[in-house]
Amino acid sequence: MPETRARLEAAFGPAKPDSPPVHPGPLVLLRLTRTGPMTDGISVAKRLRVAGITLREAHAIVGELREVGTAPVRVAEGAGLEVVRNDLRAFGVSAAWAGCDAP
User: Fold this and answer.
1) In whole angstroms, what is the distance from residue 40 CA to residue 78 CA?
2) For residue 85, what are the CA distances in angstroms to 25, 67, 76, 97?
3) What is the distance between the alpha carbons of residues 1 and 10, in angstroms, rounded to a whole number?
4) CA 22, 24, 28, 33 torsion-angle sign
5) Which tens digit of pLDDT belongs to each residue from 13-43?
Protein backbone atom coordinates (compact mmCIF):
# COMPACT_ATOMS: atom_id res chain seq x y z
CA MET A 1 0.00 0.00 0.00
CA PRO A 2 2.70 2.59 0.85
CA GLU A 3 4.36 1.84 -2.50
CA THR A 4 1.15 2.66 -4.33
CA ARG A 5 0.81 5.93 -2.44
CA ALA A 6 4.45 6.79 -3.19
CA ARG A 7 3.89 6.14 -6.90
CA LEU A 8 0.74 8.26 -6.94
CA GLU A 9 2.44 11.11 -5.10
CA ALA A 10 5.41 10.91 -7.48
CA ALA A 11 3.05 11.15 -10.45
CA PHE A 12 0.51 13.68 -9.13
CA GLY A 13 2.12 15.38 -6.14
CA PRO A 14 1.36 14.96 -2.44
CA ALA A 15 -2.18 14.41 -1.24
CA LYS A 16 -3.90 17.56 -0.09
CA PRO A 17 -5.61 17.63 3.30
CA ASP A 18 -9.38 17.95 3.39
CA SER A 19 -9.40 21.63 4.33
CA PRO A 20 -12.43 23.54 3.08
CA PRO A 21 -12.34 27.32 2.70
CA VAL A 22 -12.77 29.25 5.93
CA HIS A 23 -15.46 31.93 5.94
CA PRO A 24 -15.89 34.73 8.47
CA GLY A 25 -18.77 35.03 10.85
CA PRO A 26 -20.60 32.85 13.29
CA LEU A 27 -22.01 29.48 12.28
CA VAL A 28 -25.67 29.37 11.30
CA LEU A 29 -27.73 26.20 11.44
CA LEU A 30 -29.51 25.34 8.20
CA ARG A 31 -31.98 22.54 7.63
CA LEU A 32 -31.46 21.00 4.20
CA THR A 33 -34.46 19.21 2.71
CA ARG A 34 -34.66 17.17 -0.47
CA THR A 35 -37.46 18.71 -2.56
CA GLY A 36 -37.56 15.98 -5.19
CA PRO A 37 -35.22 13.49 -6.76
CA MET A 38 -31.66 14.54 -5.98
CA THR A 39 -30.09 13.94 -9.36
CA ASP A 40 -26.59 15.18 -8.62
CA GLY A 41 -25.32 14.43 -5.12
CA ILE A 42 -21.76 15.16 -6.21
CA SER A 43 -22.66 18.74 -7.12
CA VAL A 44 -24.44 19.14 -3.77
CA ALA A 45 -21.31 17.93 -1.97
CA LYS A 46 -19.09 20.25 -4.02
CA ARG A 47 -21.35 23.22 -3.25
CA LEU A 48 -21.28 22.40 0.46
CA ARG A 49 -17.47 22.20 0.26
CA VAL A 50 -17.31 25.73 -1.19
CA ALA A 51 -19.51 26.82 1.73
CA GLY A 52 -16.87 25.52 4.18
CA ILE A 53 -17.97 21.92 4.82
CA THR A 54 -15.36 19.15 4.58
CA LEU A 55 -15.85 16.52 1.89
CA ARG A 56 -16.36 13.87 4.57
CA GLU A 57 -19.13 15.93 6.19
CA ALA A 58 -20.66 16.79 2.80
CA HIS A 59 -20.74 13.10 1.84
CA ALA A 60 -22.53 12.26 5.10
CA ILE A 61 -25.02 15.10 4.52
CA VAL A 62 -25.78 13.92 0.97
CA GLY A 63 -26.30 10.38 2.28
CA GLU A 64 -28.68 11.63 4.95
CA LEU A 65 -30.59 13.69 2.38
CA ARG A 66 -30.98 10.61 0.17
CA GLU A 67 -32.02 8.29 3.02
CA VAL A 68 -34.03 10.54 5.33
CA GLY A 69 -34.81 13.53 3.14
CA THR A 70 -33.47 16.14 5.55
CA ALA A 71 -30.15 17.01 7.19
CA PRO A 72 -28.87 19.75 9.49
CA VAL A 73 -25.70 21.65 8.54
CA ARG A 74 -23.79 24.52 10.15
CA VAL A 75 -22.42 27.09 7.70
CA ALA A 76 -20.58 30.34 8.42
CA GLU A 77 -22.54 33.51 7.71
CA GLY A 78 -19.68 34.73 5.51
CA ALA A 79 -20.19 31.82 3.09
CA GLY A 80 -22.86 33.76 1.19
CA LEU A 81 -25.90 31.97 2.57
CA GLU A 82 -28.38 33.25 -0.02
CA VAL A 83 -26.08 32.11 -2.83
CA VAL A 84 -25.69 28.71 -1.15
CA ARG A 85 -29.47 28.39 -0.83
CA ASN A 86 -30.03 29.34 -4.48
CA ASP A 87 -27.31 26.99 -5.73
CA LEU A 88 -28.63 24.03 -3.73
CA ARG A 89 -32.17 24.68 -4.99
CA ALA A 90 -30.92 23.92 -8.52
CA PHE A 91 -29.96 20.43 -7.31
CA GLY A 92 -33.31 19.64 -5.65
CA VAL A 93 -32.34 20.70 -2.11
CA SER A 94 -33.90 23.52 -0.13
CA ALA A 95 -32.06 25.22 2.73
CA ALA A 96 -34.03 26.91 5.50
CA TRP A 97 -32.88 28.57 8.71
CA ALA A 98 -33.21 26.17 11.62
CA GLY A 99 -33.76 27.37 15.15
CA CYS A 100 -33.46 30.94 16.30
CA ASP A 101 -29.99 31.74 14.99
CA ALA A 102 -31.09 33.09 11.61
CA PRO A 103 -29.06 36.10 10.52
Assistant:
1) 25
2) 17, 21, 13, 10
3) 14
4) negative
5) 766 666 666 777 888 899 999 998 877 899 9
